[in-house]
Amino acid sequence: MDRLLPLVAAVVSQTERRVFKGEKVPAQEKIVSLYEPHTDIIVKDRRDVQYSHKLNLTQGKSRMFLDLVIETGNPADSDRFIPMLKRQIDIYERAPRQAAVDGGYASSTNLEDAKALGVNDVAFHKKRGLEVKDMVKSQYVYRKLYCFRAGIEAGISWLKRCFGLSVCPCQDEEHFEAWCWAAVVCYNFVILSRYPAPAIA
């Protein structure tokens, strides 16, 4: 009761503001679940509204996932590209030579900032007015990175289908985060197990 009563009061308040007073309640102030109050409202383009958390994943050439960030709220993808790139630079102490990125992250500012951070080739899945020659050194490189990004989508699909990332049964934020990281770690262990063992001299 101590946990639920304040949440119920918040739901009543936001309903009064939205329905009776005609206010537009900011998404970060809304409570959409009494049992999972940490849940965010996620709207992607014209698609259906979803209730969960937005995840940002980084995958390397090895097909292993190198980073996971569980976002708060529903930040625009374009605002998250450079922070995710800087996380990679902090972790590995160098910028990646090339990056294949989802179309939602595309912008001329992100392209310029990524190049300034030391990334040679940045291939956005959707060009959004950008020229291939500005993103990468050749059409061939763009095509290779474009196909690599499609492989990342396959990895994310595998995370959802085989490692439980599509539905989380946990009811608090800490356990939600643990569930997501467990899925990624298990995925990486499977990828590692499939690599051939090094030859013994």
From TrEMBL:
Source taxon at top rank: Bacteria
Protein name: Transposase
Lineage of origin: Bacteria, Pseudomonadati, Pseudomonadota, Gammaproteobacteria, Oceanospirillales
Domain Transposase IS4-like: 55-189
UniProt cross-references to InterPro entries, sorted A to Z: Transposase_11
